[in-house]
Structure to design on (233 residues):
C-alpha cells in the first residue's frame, strides 16, 4: 500500500495508489499523523497531494535511509470511515452566464438553473492545494457536470472565478491564466498573505476539509466585498 522513495538530500516522498479518492485522502491523513509522531523534531514540513506525501526533513536529521527504514516498518494505514472529518467551509457564489455556464449546461443536457443546483448540492473534499496559494482542488464533481478543460486557456481569469474541469471544481484565489470552465464568482478571500506570522489562518481551508457552495445574488456578492470584472460592470 505504501511506497517510499528518496526525494533529495532532506526529503522522502510517500506514494499511495494513484487515484483521486476519499480512501486515499483518509489514509494520507492517517499517515501524516503517524509521521509527525515518529519524526518529531526531525520533521520540517509535510506537503500532501492526491496520492502522495512529501516529507521534508530538517538538515540535522539522522540519515535518510535510517528514517526511510523506520517509516517503512512503522507506518500503517487502515480504511476507517471519517466521512465527516475536517471543518465545513461554505463558499458563496454569484453564478453568471458570462463565461461557460451555458456551455456546461448544453453539454450536460441541463438548464443553467439545474447546473447551479447540481454544483451546489455536493459537499466537496479539499484533496490538494496548489498551483497558487489558496487554490484548492475539490472533488468529486457530480458526473453530470464533468467537463473537459478548455482547449485554449484564457489568458486572464478574474479573482474568485469558480471553475470546473473533469470531475473537479475550484476557485481561483487571484487573477491568473486559466483553462477551467467558469460558472461564476466567489467574493471570499482565499489567501491572505498579510496574516503570515500571525495566529490568523492564511486560507479558510486545509487538505481534508469539506467545502459546499451556496448561490448568492449580485447584490449579495457586492455586499460581501466581491469585485466584478469589467465585462460585468
Amino acid at each position: 500500500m505504501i511506497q517510499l522513495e528518496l526525494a533529495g538530500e532532506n526529503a522522502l516522498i510517500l506514494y499511495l495508489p494513484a487515484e483521486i479518492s476519499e480512501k486515499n485522502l483518509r489514509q494520507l491523513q492517517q499517515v501524516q499523523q503517524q509521521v509527525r509522531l515518529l519524526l518529531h523534531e526531525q520533521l520540517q514540513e509535510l506537503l500532501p497531494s492526491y496520492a502522495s506525501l512529501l516529507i521534508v526533513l530538517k538538515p540535522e536529521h539522522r540519515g535518510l535511509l535510517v528514517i526511510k527504514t523506520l517509516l517503512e516498518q512503522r507506518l500503517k494505514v487502515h480504511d476507517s470511515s471519517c466521512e465527516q472529518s475536517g471543518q465545513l467551509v461554505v463558499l458563496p457564489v454569484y453564478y453568471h452566464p458570462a463565461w461557460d455556464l451555458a456551455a456546461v449546461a448544453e453539454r450536460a443536457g441541463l438548464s443553467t438553473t439545474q447546473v447551479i443546483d447540481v454544483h451546489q448540492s455536493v459537499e466537496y473534499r479539499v484533496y490538494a492545494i496548489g498551483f497558487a496559494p489558496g487554490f484548492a482542488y475539490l472533488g468529486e464533481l457530480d458526473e453530470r457536470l464533468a467537463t473537459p478543460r478548455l482547449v485554449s486557456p484564457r489568458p486572464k481569469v478574474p479573482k474568485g472565478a469558480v471553475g470546473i474541469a473533469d470531475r473537479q471544481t475550484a476557485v481561483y484565489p487571484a487573477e491568473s491564466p486559466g483553462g477551467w470552465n467558469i460558472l461564476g464568482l466567489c467574493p471570499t478571500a482565499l489567501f491572505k498573505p498579510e496574516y503570515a506570522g500571525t495566529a490568523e489562518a492564511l486560507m479558510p481551508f486545509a487538505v481534508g476539509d469539506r467545502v459546499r457552495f451556496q448561490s448568492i445574488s449580485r447584490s449579495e456578492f457586492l455586499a460581501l466585498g466581491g469585485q466584478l470584472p469589467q465585462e460585468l460592470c
About this structure: The chain has two domains: 3-74, 88-232. Residues 88-232 form a domain with the Cyclophilin fold (CATH 2.40.100.10). The mean pLDDT is 90.
